Amino acid sequence: MVSVPSGCSNLDWLDHCWDWLEKFQTIILFGDSDEPGRKMIRDVLRRLDEARCMVVEDYPERPDGTPCKDANEILYFHGAEALKETLSAEQEDALRERIAAQTQAYIEDKAAALGASVRVEVTLNDAEYPQPMHVRIAGIVSLSQRQALAEYIRTAFAVAEEEQEWIIYEVGE
């Protein structure tokens, strides 16, 4: 964990640290919880590859019931373990979002390769290592495209046909 050296309105540090930041596969952004802090996070996300960034958004409360302002306040009021838990929870949420988004993209890409136009929503299970458990597919597909895509979803993601929800407008072969 590193701290922004010059306040939330000065992003010059990004240029100085660019090569170093490029070494990380995942970057966790943990800004101040006030509006300037949230703006800094939005600005940093625009500069970095947003796909490899995770943003901590849920901060524990201070004793007075208001959210902690930043990582230092979490350490001060709750200790190092609470800070670790905050980061861990954010990583788990980000992992779930990535798995769902990538699964959706894979299915939509397969549908496009078959000549179908669909939108996909994926529901994950609550396991330690989340996996797709239900898939909703909406779009325009032929019977053969639907069969091929259903088989792909079953074999690639282990989602049984009864867990595949189809909202389709079938077209002829």
Briefly say what this structure is.
This protein is 46% helix and 19% strand. The chain is an alpha/beta fold and 173 residues long.
Q: How are the secondary structure elements laid out?
A:
Elements: H1 12-21, E1 27-29, H2 35-47, E2 53-55, H3 71-78, H4 80-113, E3 117-124, E4 132-142, H5 143-157, E5 164-171
Parallel strand pairs: 1-2, 4-5
Antiparallel strand pairs: 3-4
Structural write-up:
With 173 residues, this protein is of the alpha/beta class. 46% of the residues lie in helices and 19% in strands. The chain has a three-stranded mixed beta sheet, covered by helices on one side. A two-stranded parallel sheet has the order 1-2. Strand 4 (132-142), helix 5 and strand 5 (164-171) form a beta-alpha-beta unit. Helix 3 (71-78) crosses helix 4 (80-113) and helix 4 (80-113) packs antiparallel against helix 5. The chain is elongated, with a radius of gyration of 21 Å.
The level of helicity is 40-55%
Average pLDDT rating: 88
β-strand amount: 15-25%
Q: What's the gyration radius in Å?
A: 21 Å
Q: Strand count, sense and closure of the main sheet?
A: 3 strands, mixed
Total of DSSP H or I helical runs spanning 4+ residues: 5
Low-confidence regions: none
Strand order of the largest sheet: 3-4-5
Shape: elongated
SSE succession: HEHEHHEEHE
Instruction: Report the strand count.
Output: 5
Structural class from helices and strands?
Answer: alpha/beta
Cα separation of the termini: 56 Å
